[in-house]
Amino acid sequence: MKTRKLLAVFMALMMVMAVFAGCAGKVTEEESEGGSKDAPKKFALFMTHMSNAFTIELSDAVKAQAAELGVDLTVNDAAQDVAKQISQIETAVNQGVDGIIIEPVSVDGIMPGVKMAKDAGVTVVIVNQQISDPSAANAYVGVSNADGGEMEMTKAAEDIGGAGNVAFLYGPMGSDAQLGRLEGYQRVLDKNPDIKVAFESTAEWDTAKALSLVENWLQANKDLKAIVAQNDGMALGALKAIEDAKLQDSIKVYGLDATPDALQAVKDGRLAATVSQSTTAQGTEAMKACFAIASGETVDAEILVDFTLITKDNVDEFLK
Amino acid sequence: MSERLGVERTRWKNNVREFGILIAFVAIVAVLMIISPDAFAQPKNLIGIVKQASINGILACGMMFVILSDGIDLSVGSTVALAGVMAAHFAHPDTYPVIIPILIGILVGLAVGLLNGIGVAFGGIPPFIITLATMTAVRGVALIASGGSPVYNLSDTFNGIASGFIPGTIVPILAVYFLLIILFSGFVLAKTVFGRRIYTIGGNEVAAKVSGINVKRMRLSVYAISGVLAGFAGVLLASRTISGSPTAGQGYELDAIAAVIIGGVSMSGGAGKWYGTLIGALLLAVLANGLDILNVSSNYQMVIKGAIIAIAVLVDIRGKSRNE
C-alpha cells in the first residue's frame, strides 16, 4: 500500500517535471531566435574530465579567451562519462546558452547531445576529437592524432638511423587517440622497413603501468633502440625503467603531450622528444570560432591546429 | 565404506583449496620457464617479479585483514593516489627530511582508513557503500590537492625509497618491504589474539559479540590497517614513478581484491591464510611479467586474468559447500 502511494507521488512528480522541461525547451528556442540580433553572451564548455595537465590547459585557454571576448562561460566536467556529458549539455541548452564547446567523451556516444543542442538553435563547436558525424556540429577545432603520431615517430626513426627494434606504448586500446597516433606511427614504419616493432602494448596512459611493462620488456633482451609512447605519462614511466636498468645511453624515449614534467625531462636531456598538441591554441581557436558562428559569421568547418615537435633545442620556449 | 570415501574426498577437497593455488602457481612458473629460458627464467627477472608484485601485494595485505573480517575496501586505489600526491608535495629537493613525506603519506592513509572504519563500525554503513564513497571523494581530493597534474621534481632520497637494491645483492628494496609486511601480517593473523578475533568476527559476528569481543573496535582497526598500508603503498608508488600522480592507482583496489581471492581467502570472511595472499599477488605479477615478455597482447592478458579469478572463487565455493 505504502509502496503504491510512493509510486503515485513519484509518477506525478515525473509528469510535472516533464511539463516544465517541455516549457523550458520552448523558451530557449524563442530566446535564442530573438537573441541572435544581440551579441551572444552565454557559452558553456563541456570537458571529458578535469584530471590531467592537458584538460586543465585546454579549459584554461577557453576560459581566458571567453574573458577576452567578455562573454559568460560555464565549465562542465563529465568525469569520462558520456551519459553525464549529454545530461550536462541538455541542462545548459535548457537554461538557454548561445553556444557550446564540447570536448567529447565518446565520438559516437555524444551524437545525441550534439543533435539536441543544434536542434535548439545553439552553436556547437567540437574541440580536440572529431565526432563521428561532423556535419551535426557547426565546426571542429583540433588536431589530427595521426599527424601527431607521425611527427613523434619520424623523430624517433631519424634518431635511430632508420633501423632497429622499437617498442610502442599505447593509450587505452580502441580509443581515438590510440588508433589515430598508431596510424601516424604506421606511416613512418611503412617508409622505414628496417624498423621492427619488438613490443607493443597498452599501459592506459598510466606511468606506473608503463614502468612495469617496460621493466618486463627489458628482460627479453631484444636490443631496443627506442620506446615510443603515445603520451608523456607513459614515456616518463618507460624512462624510469630504462634509467633503473642503466640503459639510457642505448634506448631513447619519446612522448607526446608536452606536459610540464616531460618538458623538464626534455630539458634535462633524459627524454629525447615530446610533441605539443598546441593545447592552448586549440582552446583559444575553439572559443573564437564558437563566438564568431553564434554572432552570425561563417568560419571553416574544420580548423586544424599544428603540432610542434619539442626537443632540447627548443624546449625553453615551452617551459613556463 | 561410502562414508570413508566421503571423508577422504573432503580431505582431498580441502587440500585442493589449500594447495591448489600453490600447485597452479608452480605450474605456471614452470611453463613460463620452459617457454622463455633466457628471459623469464633469469634470476634477475624472477626477483624483479617480486618487486612488481610489491605495491599490489602491500595493498592486498590490508585488503586481506578487511576481507577476513567480512568487509571490503574499495578506497585503497584512491588512497594510493592521495598519499602519493601529498607525500610528493613534501618531497621536493632541499625541503624536508625524507621521513616527513613518508609519514604524511601514511597519515593520509590512516585518515581515510579511520573514516571507513568509523562509517562501518559506528555508522552501520555497509563496507561496500562507505568505501565506495571514500573511493570517489578521496580521488577528488587527490585531484584538488595536485591541481590535476602530477607533482614532480622530487628529491633523490625520496626517489630512492622504492628504487635500488639491498647492497651487494640483486634483491630490490621494494620486494623487502612487501615480504616484511606480509610476514608480519601473517604473524598477527596466525599467532596473536587480535588476529584470531578477526577470523571470529568474519566467521560469525554474533558469536564474536557473545564471547565478549569488541566488534566495533576490531572493525575500526582492520580499516585503519588497510588505510595505513595503502598510504605507505602510495608513498612507494610515488617514489617508484618519481612523481605523485592524482590519477595513479586506478583499479588497484580490484587487483588487491583479486590477489586476496586468488589466494583462497573467503569473500564472506573468516577463512583464508596469509600465504595465500602472498601467492595470489605473486601469481598476478608472474602472469603480467611472463605474458609481457612473450609479447602477448594486453587484451588476452585481461581474459586470462579474469579466468584465473573465476576459477579461484569456484574452488573456494566448492571447497566450502563440501565442508558444510
Give the low-pLDDT segments of chain A: 21-37
Strand content range of chain A: 15-25%
CATH fold node name of chain B = ABC transporter involved in vitamin B12 uptake, BtuC
The total domain count of chain A is: 2
| CATH superfamily descriptor of the largest domain in chain A | Response regulator
Number of helices of chain B: 13
Strand percentage of chain B lies at: under 5%
Architecture (CATH level 2) name of chain B: Orthogonal Bundle
Order of helices and strands of chain B: HHHHHHHHHHHHH
CATH topology of the largest domain in chain A: Rossmann fold
Structural class of chain B: mainly alpha
Written description of the protein model:
The complex is a heterodimer of chains A (320) and B (324). Chain A is an alpha/beta fold and 320 residues long. Helix content of chain A is 48%, strand content 18%. In chain A, helix 2 packs parallel to helix 10, helix 3 runs parallel beside helix 4 and helix 5 crosses helix 6 (176-191). The model of chain A is unreliable at 21-37 (pLDDT under 50). Chain B has a single domain (2-323), classed as Orthogonal Bundle (ABC transporter involved in vitamin B12 uptake, BtuC), CATH 1.10.3470. The mean pLDDT of chain B is 90. With 324 residues, chain B is mainly α. The longest helix of chain B is centred in the N-terminal third of the chain and has 34 residues, at 2-35. The radius of gyration of chain B is 20 Å and the shape is globular. The chains are: A alpha/beta (320), B mainly alpha (324). Chain A binds chain B through residues 50-53, 55-56, 173, 198-202, 205-208, 211-213, 215-217, 219-221, 233, 236-237, 240, 244, 259-261, 264, and chain B through 36, 38-40, 42, 44-45, 48, 52, 55, 143, 147-150, 152-153, 163, 237, 240-243, 245-250, 288-289, 292-293, 295, 297-299.
